[in-house]
Design brief:
single chain; alpha/beta; 8-stranded mixed β-sheet; 3-stranded antiparallel β-sheet; disordered N terminus
């Protein structure tokens, strides 16, 4: 019979979960957590299952590692995994691209407002290009909620958006562009993404962005996605940029198009007149809720 470790207290022995064979073979905890942190910093988001598989540990250990990194202030825990922490000195550093999961947790109400207004512009029988992003994900959700819509064809380069639209099949026909997968946004870009976009012409295109500026136009942080947005812009009769108030007046690396390339900006109720005035003066139509209400209670919108 094996005796217990005399240096371990009974409470400690009970609190510590038994190590699995995979945990015993894994890297030392500090080394493993440093590598997990690098992975999250590179990708923006990592799932518990990915940590488990990549480092050969149990789910309990993977979650404990993420909890430890959160306690150190290096990552933020979200459902199913962890994301990089937003830098507090953001204004003093070049902007970085948020992961899809980070953006999804931010500005939920404004994105719902934008989604409801955008979905209201779509009619039966139309074809729609839906860009990748969390604002356009809100558009997808609002389209699915419109049970009156039928015979709508939606083309997207966003895997999350395609899955969101799936319950509306067969009312909707959903076409995914194909291409190379960017994990940070779950988006499809070149090579091959242009193959589908060069062969279609849609009635409407809802295009997301990181910045809308009167002189610089519509811009995006990521160059590969900016290139796909340009192709979407060229493939639609009417192009609409969807952007919450925080994007107005911002300028980023990749230009999508001038304001003249877009028919309308759909934004949320928080967008103030000083931020919108230069855009209107440049000839861009603006659609926003009349008041900062939720989509369920908001039935009015202003257009100028």
């Amino acid at each position: 019979m094996t005796s217990a470790d005399p240096t371990a207290s009974p409470s400690t022995a009970r609190a510590r979960p038994p190590a699995t064979s995979s945990d015993r073979d894994a890297l030392p905890g500090p080394v493993r957590r440093e590598q997990i942190h690098r992975l999250i910093d590179e990708r923006g988001f990592v799932r518990v299952s990915e940590v488990r598989e990549a480092f050969g540990v149990s789910g309990v250990t993977a979650r404990s590692d993420l909890d430890a990194l959160e306690a150190d202030g290096t990552v933020q825990r979200v459902h199913g995994g962890a994301v990089v922490v937003q830098r507090r000195d953001y204004a003093e550093r070049p902007p970085f691209e948020s992961s899809f999961e980070q953006a999804l947790a931010a500005s939920v109400g404004p994105k719902q407002q934008i989604g409801a207004l955008a979905a209201g512009l779509v009619s039966n029988g139309q074809s729609v290009i839906l860009d990748v992003g969390t604002t356009t994900l809100a558009v997808a959700r609002a389209l699915v909620a419109r049970s009156d819509l039928t015979d709508v064809v939606i083309i997207t380069n966003g895997l999350s958006i395609a899955l969101e639209l799936e319950p509306a099949i067969p009312r909707f026909t959903v076409i995914v562009t194909g291409g190379s997968l960017r994990p940070r946004q779950h988006s499809l870009v070149e090579p091959l993404a242009a193959t589908v976009l060069s062969q279609v012409h849609a009635d409407l295109a809802f295009i997301g962005c990181n910045g809308v500026h009167a002189e610089a136009g519509v811009t995006n942080i990521n160059l590969p996605e900016a290139g796909i947005k340009k192709l979407m812009l060229a493939a639609a009769t009417r192009s609409i940029v969807v952007a919450d108030a925080s994007k107005l007046g911002q300028v980023h690396l990749g230009q999508v198009g001038s304001l003249r390339s877009f028919h309308t900006l759909i934004t949320d109720a928080a967008a103030a007149t000083p931020a919108l005035a230069p855009l209107r003066e440049a000839g861009l139509g603006v659609l926003q809720p009349e008041s900062p209400t939720t989509p369920e209670t908001d039935t009015g919108a202003t257009k100028s």
